[in-house]
Write a structure and sequence with these properties.
This protein is mostly helical. Helices cover 53% and strands 6% of the residues. It has eleven helices and four strands. The strands form two sheets. The chain has a two-stranded antiparallel ribbon. It has a two-stranded antiparallel ribbon with strand order 2-3. The radius of gyration is 20 Å and the shape is globular.
């Protein structure tokens, strides 16, 4: 079956009646335990849950200096690198929205997986998508690039909350600019640590999803290869991306099960 094709023994001792390898159940339970350990730090929101490059549509702006950038949108890796570079460059100087042309138009599409979720999962999943369908994870954002993105996200969210708390000021566009929320270094670190952890959740989910798709989908795509690449990324980053958010948690970072270590 498809699990065995990845070296995931669906008949191992402890497998469920649905032939799910027991080590996957253990990994799932561990991920859920880490989430529960950090639950008080996890904001929820209506999340897209599938923000890969193809689900982010950018209308070609009229501004001549941005046409080249807009035409490069189909190149997922180039787009991710460019966006991350701009985030890192700007966040020390001014708001990222300061230089956006008035005719800039970006929309999300494909909401089949949309539901309420942990907001940090949505960001983490988007960071993983910098790698594209080829799973080129050397394009994953650096810590500095990730923090630039996260800082802007948190600042904007905080500003929106403050405006909603004072609708009279929000009604006056001039006064609305008087809101200047701040994010402390510790807040930024905690949020980014949690987002990096949620990249593990994302890789876990999409690797299992891909195995299931290999069984049922009629789309011509190498789902098993994709699953193997996402699973390898999960194992490769598990310890590093969970250490900060499991500090003080008993058995925080257990060694991957033997069957998981043997998978491709």
């Amino acid at each position: 079956d498809q699990f065995n094709a990845l070296g995931w023994d669906a008949n191992d001792e402890g497998a469920t009646t649905k032939s799910i390898p027991s080590f996957l159940i253990k990994e799932r339970d561990w991920l859920l335990s880490v989430i529960q350990f950090n639950i008080s730090k996890l904001p929820t929101a209506v999340c897209h849950n599938d923000l890969l490059h193809g689900n982010i549509m950018v209308k070609e702006p009229k501004s001549p200096n941005l046409k080249d950038n807009a035409s490069a949108i189909p190149n997922e890796s180039a787009q991710a690198r460019q966006f991350a570079h701009e985030l890192q460059h700007h966040h020390h100087h001014h708001s990222l929205t300061d230089d956006i042309p008035k005719d800039f138009d970006m929309k999300f599409i494909d909401f089949e997986y949309t539901r309420r979720n942990y907001a940090y999962f949505d960001i983490a999943n988007h960071f993983n998508e910098y790698a594209g369908v080829r799973c080129e994870f050397h394009h994953f954002p650096s810590r500095a690039e990730a923090e630039a993105f996260v800082k802007e996200y948190l600042l904007h969210g905080r500003k929106v909350v403050e405006l909603l708390r004072d609708p009279m000021r929000a009604a006056n566009s001039a006064n609305a600019n008087c809101f200047h929320p701040t994010i402390s270094p510790e807040e930024l670190k905690v949020a980014t640590d949690l987002i990096f952890f949620f990249t593990l959740v994302s890789n876990f989910i999409w690797s299992v999803w891909s195995v299931l798709q290999a069984t049922t989908s009629e789309i011509d795509f190498s789902y098993l290869s994709y699953a193997a690449a996402r699973w390898k990324r999960y194992l490769d980053t598990k310890e590093a991306f969970s250490a900060a958010v499991t500090a003080g948690m008993e058995d925080a970072v257990p060694s991957p099960p033997e069957s998981a270590q043997e998978s491709p």
